[in-house]
Amino acid sequence: MCGIVGLVNSVGPIDRSLVERMTGALAHRGPDDSGLWMSSDERVSLGHRRLAIIDLSPLGHQPMISEDGLTVIVFNGEIYNYHEVRVALQQIGVKFRSASDTEVVLYAYRVWGPGCLDRLVGMFAMAIWDQQQGRLFVARDRAGEKPLFYIQKDGRFAFASELKSLLVDQSLPRKVNPEALDDYLAYGYVSGGLCMLDGFAKLPAAHWLTYEPEKDRLVVNRYWDLPLHNPSENHLEDLTDELEALLTQSVRGQLVADVPVGVLLSGGLDSSLVAAAAARTAGKGVKTFTVSFPGHPKFDESAYARRVADFLGSEHTELVAEPASDELLSALIHQYDEPIADNSMIPTFIVSRAIRGSCTVALGGDGGDELFGGYAHHPWFLQFERLRRLGLHRLRLETSAANLVPIGIKGRSALLAMLSLSTPQAALTRLLDPVLRARLTSRPISFAPELRRSGLASGRTGIDAICAADFRSYMCDDILVKVDRASMLTSLELRAPMLDHRIVEFAFGRLSSNARVDGNSRKVILRNLAKRWLPSDFDSHRKQGFTIPIHSWFQGPWKHLIQDLLLGGSPFFDKQVLGPLISKLQATERGGHRLFQLIALELWRREYGVSVVT
Fold this sequence. Notes:
Layout: E1 2-9, H1 16-24, E2 33-38, E3 44-50, E4 64-65, E5 71-79, H2 82-90, H3 101-112, E6 122-130, E7 135-140, E8 149-153, E9 156-160, H4 163-166, H5 178-187, E10 201-202, E11 207-212, E12 217-222, H6 236-254, E13 261-264, H7 269-282, E14 287-292, H8 302-312, E15 315-320, H9 326-335, H10 345-355, E16 361-363, H11 368-372, H12 377-387, H13 398-404, H14 412-419, H15 424-428, H16 434-441, H17 448-455, H18 462-489, E17 493-495, H19 501-510, H20 524-533, H21 550-555, H22 559-568, H23 575-586, H24 592-608
Parallel strand pairs: 13-14, 13-16, 14-15, 16-17
Antiparallel strand pairs: 1-3, 1-9, 2-3, 4-5, 5-6, 6-7, 7-11, 8-9, 8-10, 11-12
Helix pairs in contact: 2-3, 6-7, 6-20, 7-8, 7-20, 10-18, 12-18
């Protein structure tokens, strides 16, 4: 697990000190080693910060150069099947100098080109300078676990694991992308290839790109996608057998490391299954960690996690979460590059920081909800799909309803979902509706984020459609961003066994709808697996995860953040709209998430010195 940077200049030599500073900005991602390579003509440079996980020796140093000097790689991530790929390469004559997975990827590219990605099982962002082809090759893993930002401007191409590394170059503008801002206000994150800063972009998950400096040409391609839905007719028990084998295989592969490994155990279904698979694979020496919130029983799952840990016989640690200080919140806002409204970044960071004291790698349960239908809006979506047959959405009443029904009223989101011009799911899961966004920002009404999100299903129907949209958007651009930045701020590698692409393909290709959601029952197949692996009294219907008592915190230690936003204002928002909105959000317990969304955006703007002029 590392941080990678690179700069390719088609118009002249590169400033070496700039690449050194870009690399230094990622020191938290890789505290164990640092490296920089520059081509003989000084027009290509790659930088790397290393968190050593596999092959701790100097032979794992990056940037890594092929024996003939024609290919150079910087790599961030883990390839869990690198042994098998290594053997395949050895059989055709490739010789290796190290035991690292990075060298395997380097020669896999040399042999198979971009097709090497089809053979890799893992999470990664990589860049390879191919001297023979005169091009840079950059790729990102199928689910989007590892990040990659880039910018092409004035004959130069630059990339980095985190946006803050690119912003070391003070000549680059810091203006808000209005399309990305609309995305954030709608859903609390910036989706797909968009970036909150205008002119920058993110390489989408499951894509690779090439940049040819001689032609100043950038080409982006998709190399993997969710399989077509062709549900199996097998009985639920048979499908559970398959999932059991796949999850066991994935966890076994992801426990491999030359450093200590732990498991994040929230006490919920997904993380408990991962912990159970780890215990079944590695025995009772597995280390598990959870977060508790004393005084907030609604959010405290430590007792459930403790029950699972006792059953599995793991070495269990409970961590106490206190309200985040101003300093911690500022550090997290800075770390996240783009604003993100997911306040569970705080407990994720807290547990990551604590785990790092005894482990360098940890496994979590991310992906279970998106793959197997675990969110509350999943069964609702099916109900709304049926109700939409009445055709009310064709009357285009959503805008009128948004104006008439005050925010904070119970059932408002459901009503707007019923009348949504795109899909009910797009309205159920958004934070601010198009009318409110337009009033708050004094901009025209835009349905663009909803239309983009509804289009992510790509012709799918029912629960398969909503799971596909959540996998391609919310999981990739919120959940995985939250996990990557929070963990890497503490130099901890977090792995997600359920995002092994073979499990993803199983979930989207083979599962029937009722193996995911049946009536109001969610994650049917995972609950069936829980009967085999977890205590008989385990409540598989309960869902919480690492969340915080945000409403209480806004009533107490975070109250000054609201006052600061009201008194200081923000160039993002119309003051005449902002004040009444905040009052309404403060009055309802469910308003805390939207309050955090607004405050996080303004804190991010101040932290990064961003201009709102577009």
